[in-house]
Amino acid sequence: MNVTFRLSALLLFLLAIALKVNAQIYAIGKVQDAFLKIPLPEAKVALLNAKDSTVIMDTIPVKKMYRADGTLKEAQFSMKVEGRPHKYLLKATLRGYETGYLSFAIKEGEEGGYMFLDNALELRKMPEKDLGEVTVTATKVKMFWKGDTLVYDATAFKLPDGSMLDDLIRQMPGVTMNEKGEIFVNNRKIDELQLGSRSFMRGNSKVLLENLPYYTVKNIKVYDQETDLNRAAGSQIENKKFVMDVNLKAEYQYGYIANVEAAGGTDDRWLGRAFLLGFTRNTRYTLLANSNNVNESRHIGSSDYWTPESMPKSLLTTHSVASDIDYQSTDKNIQEKLSIDFTSTRDKGDMTKQEELFLAGSPLQTMKQSTMTKENKLKIGNRFKYIKPKAFMLDADVAIGYKSYHGNTNMLAEQYVDTLITRQHNVGFNDGKKWDASINASLMPHMKKMGNLGQHLLMKANVNYSSDENLLAQQFNVKDFANASSSNTFNTNDYAKRQLKASASLTYGLGGKKNYASIEITPSYNQEKTHDWLYHPDSLLLPSQMDMLQAITDHANSYESKLQSFGTDVMLSFYRIQELPANMAMGLPKRSMNFIDIYLVMKIKHDKLNYLRGQIDTLATRTTIRFNPWANICLYVKKDERRPIHIGLGYNESNTPLIDMINIHDSSTPLVVRLGNPDLKAWRSVSYIFAEYKDLRSPRHNYTLSAGFNYIHNDVSQSVSFNAKNGVYTYRPKNIHGAYDAKAKATVFYTLDANRRWTVENCADGNFIHSLDHAMLAGEPQSQVNAVNTLTLYDRAYLQYNKGSLYVRATGDVRWRHSESKRPGFAALNATDFRYGLAARYTIPLLNTTISMDGNMYSRRGYGNLGLNRDDFVLNASASQSFLKGKLIARIEAFDLLHQLSSTDYKVNAQGRTETWCRTLPHYLMGHVIYHFNKNPKRK
Fold first, then answer.
1. What is the SS3 assignment for 258-289?
2. Whether pLDDT at 717 is above 90
3. How far is CA 515 from CA 237, 453, 518, 572, 631, in A?
4. Strand runs labelled E in 778-885
5. Global pTM exceeds 0.70
C-alpha cells in the first residue's frame, strides 16, 4: 500500500508539472460603448501580438450574456492563450464607431485557468458632422498571419478604377512577379495561382492576372496546400503545393463577372478583348477573347518591369479565344475540367547580333536578320478526378493539340578580320504542321493498414504521341572577298519527326505519423522516327512544288533515323516529419512539417539507333545505368516555422544524344560544318548543394539569405574551329570536365513606419561562373580547352511610399560583369548596366482621375559594339477617368515619349561573347475604353 501511495503521489506530481508546462489560460472580456456602457455584441473582435500588431486570431466570437429578467447584460468574448509571459492587443471594430484597442499581458507565474480582463474593450461613436459626400475609412492591415497562412486583405489596398489582379499583386508587400507571370512570395516561387482554392484554366495564371478586376477580390491567401493525392491517402505521401489562393467577395461568388475593352492608337496599334467569369453552386465557367498587336503586358507606373531584358523583342499580333468549364462537387471529391484554347499569331522581328570567338585571328561576325512567323494553335483538354478521402483516387487527363505554322527569314552575315572577308545573304521560307495527343491516368486503390502503418499503392500510366512535318526552302549567296569567289545555292528540306512515348509506374508506400518510405518502379518506351532529306533545286521552291526529286537529292546531307529507348527507373524515397509545437502568441497550432526527404534513383536504359546517311548505314547501341541521389533538409530556428533553413544537395547523371557519337559530316549550311565524335562520352554529371535561410517573423520586415554551388564532373560541349582561309566554322561535340558556378543572394524587406506607408527593399546577388569549352584554329593539331571566369554582381533597391491613392516608388539597380581568361591574347571584359528611375500614381479625389507616370534612365558601358554604350531615358505616362461608379473606364496611354526604347542582351562563355539588339514596339499613343459589369442571381 505504501508503494502504491508513493507511485500515486509521483504520478500526481508529474501531472502537475505537465499541466504547469502546458498551462493555457482562457482570457475573458467584454466589449461595450465607451460613453453609454451598453454592450456591443455586433462588434468584431480580433487578437493581435502587441509587439508588431501581427494578427493571431482575426475573429473572436462575441456572445450575448443575459440577466435573470431576460435583458442584455454584456457582450462577452473569450480566447485561449498560452500561460507564459506575453503581451497582447485586442482590437474591436463596428460600423459607426472608431476602432477600439485594449492591451493586456500574461505575467510570470500566471496559473492556467480563467482570467477576467480588468477593463472592458470600449468603442467610441464617430462624431456626427455634416461633411457632405466625405467618406470616413478606417485604416486596415494589409497583411497578417492567420495560423500558418499569410493573408493579404485586398480591401486595404487603394488602386485606381480599372485595375486588375496583377496590379493588386504587384502592390502586395514581399511579393514579386516577373514578366513571365511567375509569382514569388518572400523569394519562394508560387507553384499555382488558384481561384477559390481551385486551379484555373489548366494553370494559365496569366489569364486570371490580366482579366480579373481587383475590386472583386476579398483577400489573397498564401499557404502550403494539401494535395488531392494526400487527401486520398489520408497522410502525406507527396510534398504540399505552395499556392496563392484568390478569394472573391461574397457578392461575386455567384452569377458572372465580365469585362470588355477596346483600344486604338498611333502607328496602327489596336486592341480588343472580352472576359467572362461565371459561377453556379458547383460549376465555374470562363470565356476569353483577345485580339491585339500591342505585345505589351507591363503597366505604366510600375518601373521595375521596364528593363531592357523585359522589352518585347518583336512585333506580335495575336488573335485568341479560350474557354474553360470547371465542375467540383461540394465535398471536392468529384472534379472535372474541360478547356479549349485557340490562338493565331503573327510575329515580326528584327535583330542585330555581334559575335566574337576568343581565338587569335578569328573574325568579328555581325548579323542582321528579319523574320516573320505565323502560327495557328488549337488545344483541347479534359481532366476527371474522383477522390474518396483516406481510401481511393482516380485521375484521368486527356489532351490534344494541333499547330500549323509558316515563316520566312532574311539574313545578312559578315565576317571581319581588319577588313571584310566574307558576306553571306540568306533568304528562306517554311510551311509546317504539328499535332500531339496524350493520355495520363492514375489510380490509388484502398489498402488496409499493416498494424499502425498505412499502406499506399499508386498506379500511373502515360501515353503521348506527336508528329511534326516541316518543308523548308532557303537560298544562300556567299561572297569570299579574300579569295575573290562567290557561290549561289538553293536548299530545300523535307523534314518529318514522329515520336511515341509510353510509361507506367507502380508505387508502394508504407508509413506512420512521422516516417514514410516508398519504392517506385517505372518502365518506359520511347520511339523517334526522323526523316530529313535535302535537295538542291535551281530556284527557291518547297519539295511539294518540285518533280524529279531523286536527281537533285543531296544524299551526304540527308538522313533517316529510328531511335528506340527501353528504360526502367527505380526510385527509393524516405521522408521524416517533424512536429512543431503550438505557438499561441503567433496563432499557430501544433503542426507537422517536413524534416528530411531522401531520394535514391537508379535509371537503367537501353538505346538503339538505326541511322542512314549517304555512305553511312549503321546501328548504334548503348546500355547505361545512371544514379541520381538527392536530399532536402528543412530546419527551423527555435522550432519557429517562420525561420526556416532549407538545405538541398544531390548528384545528377543523364545521357546526352546518341547521335553525337555517329561519325557524321554535315555541310548542308554554307560556312558551317557539323561533325560527330565516335570517342565521345555521351553523358553529363553534376553535383550541387543549396542552402537558404528566411526570417519571416514579422509582416513588417523580413530577409532571405541563400547560396548555391554546382560542379560539372562531365559534360558535352560543341567545340568550334575557324578556317581563316575560307571562313568556315566547324563544330564537333567534345567532353569537358571541371566547370562550376557559385552564387549567393541576400534580400531585405523593411517597413519604415508604423502605418506601413514607407517600405524599402534591397536585393543583392553575386554569381561566379567558371566555364569551359573547346576552340581551335584550322591547322592546329588539337583543340584547346578554354577557361573563362565571369563574375556578375547585381544590386537592386527600391523605396516606396503609399498612402491612399498616392503611390510613389524610386528604384535603382546596377549589374557589373567581369570576364577574364589566361588564354594568350584574351582581353578582360567589363560590362556595366545601371538604371535609376521614379514611378508615381495618384487619383485626384474630386475628379476621380488617375494619373500614372514612370521614367527610367538606362545606361550601358563596356560593350564591344560602341553603339550599345549609351544612355536611354524611357518615359511613359497615362491618365484614366472612371464613370458610372467605376464600371466604365476611359484611359489614354503614351509609351516611350522620347523614342529611346530598345532591347539588348549580353552573353559571355568560354568560346566567346555575343551582343544582341532587337527591335521593340515603337513609341505610340493609345486610348482605351473598358466596361466592367456583373450579374448576381436573385435570391429565392
1. EEEEEEEECCCCEEEEEEEEEECCCEEEEEEE
2. no
3. 10, 10, 10, 14, 15
4. 784-803, 806-820, 829-844, 849-861, 871-883
5. yes
